[in-house]
């Protein structure tokens, strides 16, 4: 505790808590200073002067327009890059990458802008900067309503935007269909194998030919995810993605229907799994047909595998021939599995994209 | 922001070894205050931009020759001021800044907290007084109370003796206090009459 009873105007001005209070516009530390006023009423005059002085000094600051900072940085960067011959630039980059890793912890702790890292590597990592860096003219839609909003794109694809989400897109006249997303969107992409469809969503990039899937990626949040309803989808970390080049297999996550991947930008780790509520794949029949009458568990699971495009494993051979009658209808997949497992006394677990059934006996 | 000299030393050392990310971090951290500081000497924004741009390019090019630094902000402020002074001497002008046109077009978050009318009135009054102060006096007050530099650092940035800084600060603060007292008493009186 500082010795506040001796505080003069100058002391307040150098007090960290005081500066925080004033410079945050009164948002931080206000409780402390409200208490202070009650506790040290005789300091009121000094406090008022200190507050007025710091406030007026901050009003006399002459901040730059928002885009100036990035503009000057771009100029500085291009100028210092030119001063190095190619080989030297390559040489200096390596050892310092490790430095960056060490600095990364500081960066996260300090909540500093990530964009500077990305400007050295190509594509920025945030919606805002990605849109600015885009080569083609873009239109932006922001869903300010309380309900989902469907946007139709030039190629016949549609995107359903959740409230508060943003989408930027061009007329797709280029050889790729590139869009930018911040927030949450469900994509139904028209098939066109000549023009890949690419979604930049902050720290991840999704590339497809023609399919439907949803993407959740919010600026400032480390976790993003992609869930696939139909078709095949490739997901990349934005800092590993190159639009023009062939991607190496180990740098992409390949998703099939009913699969989803969660990306954690803090650890750069992709975690693949099943969507919460798998849906029946298109072209696999009517959901009402899931009425099993005296059918072997093996056949039931086989049908479910085909219908939902999932892998179901079981290690108990006696289940194979076990016959059950189960009107499963259009219940969700995991409800169906609950019922089957209860019937034969087994349990199931989901490991990544696999469903594994264990235990159980067929003594009915 | 609490000045953490150990943290500064680390970033600066990484930068001197050629770590571009440390360099970018320095830029990210201090651009805003440098710009605002430079703007007080040059009213033309493009000249301030150029000065900061040159400062950072020079930093990178000479990084291997730079000495250790435990207060980056201080180092940058001093360098920027020297650069600007050199440019201005060549052209023989230190431009006066037009605060009024600026203040009209900007809203400051610092005004928003639950301040009473009398607080706001005092702030307005101080802004008016500060604007009328001789340029170097306002500069030392800003460096001391807004940027939170020490007297020794301010003396070095402004290239004057510590004694001069101390006197300047003392005089300005006395002037401000006098005005604040007058206003404070006046406001108290009005309040008493009203209630």
Low-confidence stretches of chain A: 84-121
Secondary-structure element pattern of chain B, one letter each: HHHHHHHHH
Q: Number of DSSP helices of chain B?
A: 9
- Backbone CA Rg of chain A: 29 Å
Strands of chain A, count: 18
Distance between the termini of chain B: 41 Å
Shape of chain A: extended
Supply the CATH architecture of the largest domain in chain B: Orthogonal Bundle
CATH topology tier name of the largest domain in chain B: Rna Polymerase Sigma Factor, Chain: A
Explain the overall architecture:
The complex is a heterodimer of chains A (364) and B (195). Chain A folds into four domains: 4-59, no CATH class; 66-112, no CATH class; 127-274, Jelly Rolls (Sandwich); 287-359, Phage tail protein beta-alpha-beta fold. In chain A, 34% of the residues lie in helices and 27% in strands. Chain A is built from eleven helices and 18 strands. In chain A, strands 1, 2, 3, 4, 5, 6, 7, 8, 9, 10, 11, 12 and 13 form a 13-stranded mixed β-sheet that branches. Chain A is extended, with a radius of gyration of 29 Å. Mean pLDDT of chain A is 81; it is low at 84-121. In chain B, 74% of the residues lie in helices and 0% in strands. Chain B contains nine helices and no strands. Chain B has helices at residues 5-16, 20-39, 45-61, 72-91, 99-105, 117-132, 135-146, 151-158, 162-194. Chain B is elongated. Chain B starts with a helix and ends with a helix. The relative contact order of chain B is 0.09. The chains are: A alpha+beta (364), B mainly alpha (195). At the A-B interface, helix 1, helix 2, helix 4, helix 5 and helix 6 of A face helix 1, helix 2, helix 3, helix 5 and helix 6 of B. Chain B: It comes from Dyadobacter psychrotolerans.
């Amino acid at each position: 505790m500082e010795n506040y009873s001796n505080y003069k105007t100058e002391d307040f001005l150098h007090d960290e808590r005081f500066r925080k209070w004033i410079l945050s516009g009164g948002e931080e530390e206000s409780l402390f200073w409200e208490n202070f006023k009650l506790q040290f009423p005789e300091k009121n005059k000094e406090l008022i002067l200190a507050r007025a002085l710091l406030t007026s000094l901050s009003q006399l600051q002459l901040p730059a327009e928002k885009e100036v900072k990035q503009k000057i940085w771009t100029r500085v960067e291009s100028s210092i890059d030119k001063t190095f011959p190619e080989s030297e630039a390559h040489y200096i980059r390596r050892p310092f990458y490790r430095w960056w890793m060490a600095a990364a912890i500081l960066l996260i702790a300090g909540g500093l802008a990530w964009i500077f890292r990305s400007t050295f590597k190509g594509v920025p990592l945030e919606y805002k900067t990605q849109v600015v860096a885009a080569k083609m003219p873009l239109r932006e839609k922001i869903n300010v309503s309380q309900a989902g909003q469907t946007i139709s794109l030039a190629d016949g694809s549609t995107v359903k935007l959740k409230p508060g989400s943003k989408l930027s897109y061009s007329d797709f006249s280029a050889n790729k269909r590139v869009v930018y997303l911040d927030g949450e969107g469900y994509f139904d992409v028209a098939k066109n194998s000549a023009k890949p469809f690419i979604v930049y969503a902050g720290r991840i990039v999704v590339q497809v030919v023609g399919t439907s899937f949803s993407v959740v990626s919010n600026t400032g949040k480390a976790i993003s995810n992609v869930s696939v309803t139909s078709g095949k989808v490739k997901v990349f970390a934005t800092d590993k993605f190159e639009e023009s080049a062939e991607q190496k297999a180990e740098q992409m996550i390949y998703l099939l229907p009913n699969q989803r991947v969660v990306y954690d930008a803090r650890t750069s780790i992709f975690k693949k799994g099943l969507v919460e509520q798998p849906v029946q794949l298109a072209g696999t029949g009517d959901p009402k047909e899931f009425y099993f009458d005296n059918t072997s568990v093996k056949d039931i699971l086989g049908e479910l595998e085909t219908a939902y495009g999932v892998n179901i494993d079981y290690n108990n051979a006696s289940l194979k021939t076990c016959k059950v009658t189960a009107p499963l209808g259009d219940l969700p997949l995991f409800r169906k599995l609950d019922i089957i497992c209860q019937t034969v006394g087994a349990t199931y677990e989901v490991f990544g994209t696999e469903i594994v059934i264990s235990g159980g006996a067929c003594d009915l | 922001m609490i000045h953490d000299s150990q943290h500064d030393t680390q970033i600066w050392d990484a930068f001197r070894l050629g770590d571009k990310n440390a360099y970018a971090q320095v830029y990210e951290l201090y651009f805003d205050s440098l710009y605002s500081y430079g703007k007080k000497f040059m009213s033309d924004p493009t000249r301030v931009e150029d000065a900061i741009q040159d400062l950072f390019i020079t930093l990178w090019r000479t990084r291997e020759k730079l000495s250790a630094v435990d207060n980056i902000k201080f180092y940058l402020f001093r360098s920027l001021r020297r650069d600007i002074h050199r440019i201005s001497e060549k052209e023989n002008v230190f431009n006066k800044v037009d605060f009024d046109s600026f203040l009209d077009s900007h809203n400051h978050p610092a005004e928003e907290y639950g301040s009473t009318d009398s607080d706001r009135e005092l702030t307005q009054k101080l802004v008016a007084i500060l604007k009328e102060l001789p340029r170097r006096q306002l500069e030392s007050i800003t460096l001391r109370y807004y940027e939170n530099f020490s007297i020794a650092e301010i003396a070095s940035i402004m290239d004057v003796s510590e004694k001069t800084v101390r006197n300047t600060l003392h005089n300005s603060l006395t002037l401000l206090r006098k005005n604040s007292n007058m206003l404070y008493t006046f406001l108290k009186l009005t309040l008493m009459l009203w209630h």
